[in-house]
Amino acid sequence: MREIYLDNSATTRTAEPAARAVYDMLVSCYGNPSSLHRKGLEAENRIAEARRSLARLLDCDPQELVFTSGGTEANNLAILGAAEARCRRGRRVVTTAFEHSSIDAAASHLEKSGWEVVRVKPDRMGHIDPQEVAAAVDSQTVLVSCMCVNNEVGTVLPIGQIVREVRRKNPHTLIHCDCVQALGKLPLSMRRLDLDLATVSAHKIYGPKGSGALFVRRGVRILPRQLGGSQEKKLRPGTEAAALIAGFGVAAQLACEHLKEDAARIADLNQELRCRLLSMPQVVINSPADALPAVLNISVPGWRSETMMHFLEERGISVSSGSACSKGAKSHVLSAMGLDPSLIDSALRVSFGRYNTKEDVEDFVLALQDAICTLAHR
Hints:
The chain is α/β, with parallel strands linked by helices. The chain contains twelve helices and twelve strands.
């Protein structure tokens, strides 16, 4: 049976050059980057090389990047580290109602500690109004956190406009952006976006799991969430995962080289699937027309997501019902958008990547049609 992987927003297949870099570090360049001998220096140099590669992809200074274990840790470091560093200025945080669970959980943690958290809701198509974000900012707001691309429906938030509006309202407010789903899919420039903090992750761009990074703009102060060493400017102490970081660097370099090519091919796949689905009256498309093409969220009302997913999996097709971190729980993203419960309960997320083909789209459509017909007669 041919494997058809359409869950690239959950994770991606590690690119072979990135995997080889990880293996080489584990068996050849295995020194501790903090050690003063040759092996340590070799590992330190590989980390520096990876930092430069990621900085090119993000258009920032390499020294503005802090490596972490992934997007979740980076998001927690940004939210909680910024809040703790700025608590004397105020105790108000503004975010959106459909952020990744690592942002929402960190914000909820602050709420339990007495902070005020304002969650701006998206409209029915998953759009966020920059004016509403700015309206929620006051003199006590120390942080605004908005994702760049929603991980379930693919909405691209107007981050540039949000930053300008927030700066105008309160120039002292720090602005964080979760760019995990945007990295390698959209051109990102930390310089042009004028962000203070931004989160990225390796395994969304064909790199290894277990490596991420937080962009911290020069001059911005946040406090660490763990203590014990001087690595990563003391913001993420502990021996660096040099092998995974090296793999991240190679994946970042590949993303720089393939960004335009990947984006064009994925846009074609998305358009092909949308056109095919529009001819199927049983299917509802939940993603807006201007969503990132890598993500297409659909519903087949009348059949629960899990039932449809299992049917597709039996035919070698991997999709999801939403964020992998939710582990099948009801989507808070679709709920925040105000969708009907029948659409939420039957939602499927199809997410494209570098290795997908038009044949994958064709096989998915045929399997979905088969599922609708078969399940209807059970």
